[in-house]
Amino acid sequence: MREIAKAFPLPWSHYDKLLALDDENARRFYEEEALRGGWSVRQLNRQINSQFYARTLLSKNKAAMLRKGAEPMGVGFAFVGRQVRLDIGGDEYAIDLLFYHLRLRCFFVIDLKMKPFKPEDAGKMNFYLSAVDDLMRHPDDGPSIGLLLCRDRNGITAEYALRDIGKPIGVAEWQTRLVDSLPPELQGRLPSIEDLEKELR
Q1: Domains of the chain, each with CATH number or no CATH
Q2: 169, CA 20 to 30 Å: which among 17, 70, 119, 152?
């Protein structure tokens, strides 16, 4: 048992996520980074969904990417606002969610999409990050970081859309699994995601 614990130091829930990866190099990379960064299974899943491995391979500054990946996620965020208004050239824009990360000392812009990711979404996020950096960022702050949370994401489309953008932008799918985890007798009593979306239109 000691030998198994040495050979497989992560919890089984981590290996469950890693074994779902087809690329052996990606699997090894995520295992090493999870051990180095002390990632929870939720953090590991988030890094896999944001294609941290592919983004690191494409990055010109791999050391900086790995340092970012080692930062504990979910810690140090301060909520700035919802639907934060930006007046740019007489036109008004609204950022869905804006946070400030106390340890990274930068703004964190989140754009929520009820539809699958499209390449033009990357351009809009690039625009938001430029505006926040110019209008809100303190000289001592780091560059703002963007996260596009979409209904669905094609990894290749996201890779092409983000490849030559110099700003740190991630794309991830949002998921709602609450209904699946409810007892069977309650599952039919709640509205479906599609019903809720129709109500919000």
Answers
A1: 2-70 (no CATH), 77-176 (3.40.1350.10)
A2: 17
